[in-house]
Structure formats: structure tokens, C-alpha cells
């Protein structure tokens, strides 16, 4: 009979393989980010604590979150793609801080009443990533929030475009983003969400999203 710790090791190994964090180098155990990395800035001593903290938080989130594991895997892969675009210590640190905040939400919040959607293009997760979350706050209250990521080379305050709306179950097709007053049509088809706005400068959240469950 397998012990819980054995099962956790198997889960972690599978997760590392799926996200590309698993490295053949013996240095993996101490620093997976730098085992096969060509990013000298990423592997600098000044970022050692951030790399270690991120790795530990990632494993913790995987073991305790009630969000879909596939969501954790895909958002980690998308984050790694953004991280690889950085060239400076400041950029790397900002990306580590952003991902730590995301992982903290996976760990601390009850995800069972939240539907997670990632935008897809041509059969794959869109890059830059766009993530929408639909929270069932109560029987008559729904919160929709999201982030559309931009280049990490942008100024910190312009690296994401936020989405926030409140609605009810019978009004969840017509949505207004409180952040910029953009109006959207939400169309739900089983595990597919289609989002469309006809307004200028509101196109960033347009597209087809897939539900993670």
C-alpha cells in the first residue's frame, strides 16, 4: 500500500514533467530554474531566494489547491513563457512576485465555486495569456474577474489589463467590465465560453475560452 507521501511524490514528478520543470541535471534538487538555463540573470544570486520560494509555493499549491490541476500546469507554463522574455533582474523579480501572488490565491481561496477559463487560439492556449474566472458568490450573485497579460517588458502598471464585473445568473450574458466600461456578450456552450465586444479598444478579451474542471 502506498503512503500519502509516496503519492505526493508521484504527483509532483508528473507535474514537473508536464510543465518542463523536471531537469536531468543533479542540480535540479537545489534549483530547477537554473539546471539547463541559459539565462545568466535569472540564475543570479540575487534571485536565489525568489527561485526557491516560487518552487516551494508551486509544489504547495499543487498538493493543496482544489482548483483543477491542469489549470495549475497550464498557467505555470504560460508564466514560464513570460519569464523567458525578461532580460533584467528587475523584470525577473516582478514576474516571480506576480506568480507568487497567483499561487497564493490557488492555495488560500476555495476554488470549488469558481469556474476558470483560459483563452484559446488555433487549438492552443493563447499567448499572451487571458484568464477569466467566474465566481458564484451566492445564489443570486456572480463575480467575473480576469487578467489579460501583456509583455513583461512593459512598465509594471501596464503589464496586465484587468477585468471585473458583477452580475446575476439571469443577466450573465450581457457583461460590463467595470474597469473600462467595455460591454461584452458572453455566450456559454458547455465547456466553451465565447466573449465578444463590438467596441473599439475592448478587443483584448474577445475570443473563445475553454473551461477547466
Strand content: 25-35%
Order of helices and strands: HHHHEEEEEEEEE
Number of domains: 2
Helix coverage percent of residues? 25-40%
What is the radius of gyration?
18 Å
Determine the number of helices (DSSP H or I, runs of at least 4 residues): 4
For the report, how would you describe the main beta sheet? 9 strands, antiparallel
How many strands? 9
Query: Can you give the mean pLDDT?
Result: 87
Low-confidence stretches: 1-10, 22-29
Shape: globular
The computed structural class is: alpha+beta
How far apart are the first and last residues' alpha carbons, in Å? 29 Å
Report on this structure.
By secondary structure, this protein is an alpha+beta fold. The protein folds into two domains: 1-111, no CATH class; 113-213, Lipocalin (Beta Barrel). Helices cover 32% and strands 28% of the residues. The protein has four helices and nine strands, in the order H-H-H-H-E-E-E-E-E-E-E-E-E. Strands 1, 2, 3, 4, 5, 6, 7, 8 and 9 form a nine-stranded antiparallel sheet that branches. The longest helix is centred in the middle third of the chain and has 20 residues, at 89-108. The radius of gyration is 18 Å and the shape is globular. Residues 1-10 and 22-29 have low confidence and may be disordered.
Amino acid at each position: 500500500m502506498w503512503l500519502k507521501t509516496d503519492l505526493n511524490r508521484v504527483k509532483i514528478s508528473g507535474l514537473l514533467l508536464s510543465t518542463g520543470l523536471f531537469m536531468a541535471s543533479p542540480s535540479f534538487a537545489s534549483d530547477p530554474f537554473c539546471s539547463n538555463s541559459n539565462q545568466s540573470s535569472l540564475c543570479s544570486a540575487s534571485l536565489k531566494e525568489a527561485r526557491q520560494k516560487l518552487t516551494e509555493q508551486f509544489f504547495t499549491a499543487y498538493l493543496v489547491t482544489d482548483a483543477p490541476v491542469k489549470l495549475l500546469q497550464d498557467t505555470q507554463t504560460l508564466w514560464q513563457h513570460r519569464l523567458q522574455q525578461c532580460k533584467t533582474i528587475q523584470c525577473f523579480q516582478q514576474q516571480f512576485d506576480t506568480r507568487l501572488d497567483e499561487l497564493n490565491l490557488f492555495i488560500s481561496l476555495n476554488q470549488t465555486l469558481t469556474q476558470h477559463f483560459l483563452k484559446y487560439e488555433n487549438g492552443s492556449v493563447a499567448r499572451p495569456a487571458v484568464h477569466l474566472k467566474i465566481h458564484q458568490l451566492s445564489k443570486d450573485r456572480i463575480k467575473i474577474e480576469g487578467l489579460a497579460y501583456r509583455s513583461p517588458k512593459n512598465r509594471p502598471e501596464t503589464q496586465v489589463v484587468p477585468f471585473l464585473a458583477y452580475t446575476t445568473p439571469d443577466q450573465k450574458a450581457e457583461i460590463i467590465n467595470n474597469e473600462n466600461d467595455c460591454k461584452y456578450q458572453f455566450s456559454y456552450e458547455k465547456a466553451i465560453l465565447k466573449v465578444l465586444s463590438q467596441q473599439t479598444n475592448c478587443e483584448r478579451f474577445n475570443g473563445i475560452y475553454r473551461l477547466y474542471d
